[in-house]
Amino acid sequence: MAVMPVGRTIGHGALAGAVAGGAGAAVQYWLVEPSIRAAIAIEDTWSAADHADHGHMSDVVVSRGEQVGFGLLTVLVVATLTGIAFALVRRFLGDRVPGRSASGSAIALAGLGFAAFTLAPALVIPANPPAVGDPATVDARTVTYLGTIFCAVVLTSAVTSLARAKRLEPGLRVVAATALAIAGSITLFWVIPDVADPIPSDVPAQLIWNFRVGSLVQIGLMWLIMGGVFGYLSEALARARSGVGARSSAQFAST
């Protein structure tokens, strides 16, 4: 597989990330934002009760509309930067990524990224809306979150390497990689401490469920679109190069 120039790699990655970010921002606005607003309404109820008890009110510095706009812009910017990082990792790994084509390899890498960076930490520390959670546990949850991602990346790399090990028969590679994935996942979830926040009794379980599912759908769709767009651009470039090469060969042969 031909190596794409660094500049073209970064450009394709930025475009793929921007497209994924646009889709992610739309999903966040239509699917995730309603749960956030519902959670904030519950928090406002708590604050109103506290203000009634203590006799003071706080001014709203930033409106909810401004927060939403900034959040959607952040999704777009972070996705674009993630797309660049994704493209550089894809270029660095080269043929070590599974897949029979450029698009297949890009989507496979996106799937591995989703599993390691999104799914694993989401299972260990399920996400809560911004207004739900104990601020005192932020540090512990952050360390656990990052530790989970690190362990998941190591496990994913080991499983992928084993699945592509040339010294093993194809059938044995599949069995060994599957066994390692299952055993490693069980060990990971057993070793990582439980630091998830308890949900207050007056927060509906359906609200939490909708937020968690919506967040996973949003990020999963972003990974899929990013891998798909980058793969499409890579294959389009490869076809263009093949066409130029074929025309050059034909012109050389005719002279």
From TrEMBL:
Keywords: Membrane, Transmembrane, Transmembrane helix. The chain crosses the membrane at residues 68-89, 101-123, 143-162, 174-193, 213-233. It holds the Pfam family CbtA. This is Membrane protein. It comes from Streptomyces humidus.
